[in-house]
From TrEMBL, chains A, B:
InterPro entries: HypE, PurM-like_C_dom, PurM-like_C_sf, PurM-like_N, PurM-like_N_sf. This is Hydrogenase expression/formation protein HypE. It comes from the Bacteria. The lineage of its organism: Bacteria, Bacillati, Chloroflexota, Ktedonobacteria, Ktedonobacterales. Residues 190-335 form the PurM-like C-terminal domain.
Amino acid sequence: MDKQSTQSSEVLSKIERARQARRHKFYLRDDHVTLSHGSGGKATHNLIEGIFAPAFANTILDRMEDSATITLGDQRLAFTTDSYVVNPLFFAGGDIGRLAVHGTINDLAMAGADPLYLSAGIILEEGFAIEHLQRIVDSMARAAHEAGVLIVTGDTKVVQRAKADGIFINTAGVGSVRASANLGQALVAPGDRVLLSGSVGDHGIAIMLAREELDIETEVSSDSAALHTLVAALLDRIGTRLHCLKDPTRGGVATALNEVALSAEVSIALDERAIPVHEGVRGACEILGLDALTIANEGKLLAFIAPEAEQEALRALRAHPLGREAAVIGTVQAEFPGMVFLRTDIGGTRVLDMLVGDPLPRIC
Amino acid sequence: MDKQSTQSSEVLSKIERARQARRHKFYLRDDHVTLSHGSGGKATHNLIEGIFAPAFANTILDRMEDSATITLGDQRLAFTTDSYVVNPLFFAGGDIGRLAVHGTINDLAMAGADPLYLSAGIILEEGFAIEHLQRIVDSMARAAHEAGVLIVTGDTKVVQRAKADGIFINTAGVGSVRASANLGQALVAPGDRVLLSGSVGDHGIAIMLAREELDIETEVSSDSAALHTLVAALLDRIGTRLHCLKDPTRGGVATALNEVALSAEVSIALDERAIPVHEGVRGACEILGLDALTIANEGKLLAFIAPEAEQEALRALRAHPLGREAAVIGTVQAEFPGMVFLRTDIGGTRVLDMLVGDPLPRIC
């Protein structure tokens, strides 16, 4: 076997072992769907590993990346989908339409792909105001235009009153994987540095603050943004020394890092002081008793980088408007595979688990 | 200009004129979303032409085909999306999972593509039974396996009780357009024959009968089926003499033909006696006062074929298990562009319009 096929069979057996490990860790005990199953955290994984992964199993899906990577002729494509059920529909820093475009672009970008084409599958509740629909559609169009992607196909369904909640949007996306990209959770290796492109928790807290029941006086805006040009800048600079990208959406940084630790059979040691958290988010988390590391972001990425490329990567991120607050937040380790550890502000170390339960349903 | 680029610029200006014609014909007057906007008929077109088409306008979307056709490197790809909100979830001949796989495969097949990869975006209502979810997911997996497609990426969201209706499923799909395929509504020309692959109305009537409020004693099963092998058989036989394919889903044969007549700037003359309708469907339509031509199908196609290929195409369809009842049902004409005429059983002729209103909400 040549070197490449040895590597590829090693990656495949790693994916297989990770699949077994996940199945061992996640077990669906529920008889009915709960809101926690939509949290992106542990219960979501229980549902995915209990129901979807075994039924749909194939070598592409089993990698459990943000996008599927598929090869057609001379093309490496990324393909992904996300549904958006965020409540409320409009919030500081964005709306459901903008989020639906950015979120799917970002899943493509995490595969190292240039996003090209999106679909829009829209479910409407009878009685929804056309004026709101127009605002949301215009916002989708603007976000797509800004990012240079085309919405090329769509579908609209309508259900009766009280059978939906205004509007749900699904976007699927197709992108072209950059030649310089070779990314995957299974490629993360001990010694890799973990970089974060900016502050955590802004999106989730902005959504919470937009809900009427809360009355906290602080200004937090969603970080909703399309990350593909940031990824391109990073790939242009460090190429294959970039091993993996994740966008910490539902379940936040804590959940995304636990997913990588499980898939890559490594542990991750984080330095809490290095993680940027805006003042408003920190304050809201204290009042609400939330951990900012479990809160959703919609314009941030985690990058796993060969140690020698750390400073170059950091410079590349910081030179981009969406990466100005980028920081090295941790290191990948060999011991205790599947675990994430947090060295806290006050000098202790604790295990950082995935989000359990769901403090913030319908965050995206 | 060489012949091919002349043809292609003719097709493009035809698409542009059709876009103007549609915009002229469809006008959104409503302030709020109604169930009719989800019918697939006239109100759906009002919504699409009033809101989505102007906001997202681009040369791929403007073609308004069942799938977008995109070119990447040496590959011609089809890309499509559909959300499924059918009620009830289980019915004679299928369930929402099977439908979600077949429907998206069929949209790809209508572009002359071999379906390859699907995504699954699932929205669940809190409290939905895991047992039902398992049945639906197993059914999706079986339908995908039977059709030889892989579900490679997915997403699950959960909303509170009474904010959805059990489960909604979005599937997007990517397929590879066959080398022999050159299909599009704009390619339909006067003289073309209209072929239908089998009986009409089975799916819609099966759904109606599965609704508890109706108590009609007749056996009708959904025709839900994956049509890509039928399309492949047709393309293998007649190649580019196949001009256009449409699957008459929401809004039925009447709506699909009106869409083609508008896009291709032609009229279509149908022979009602030639259109296969199963006894149970005919009976149910009489009792319910419905026109079988406006009822949804989920395993049928309409093919527009160069006149000299009519008999070959008919033989190719009839030789396939899903085309045994195929029939030539009409002819494309130059006069009265945008209109569909039906020569009725009793010898008269009437205009056959798109579905107006929605006799059957949430049929798919």
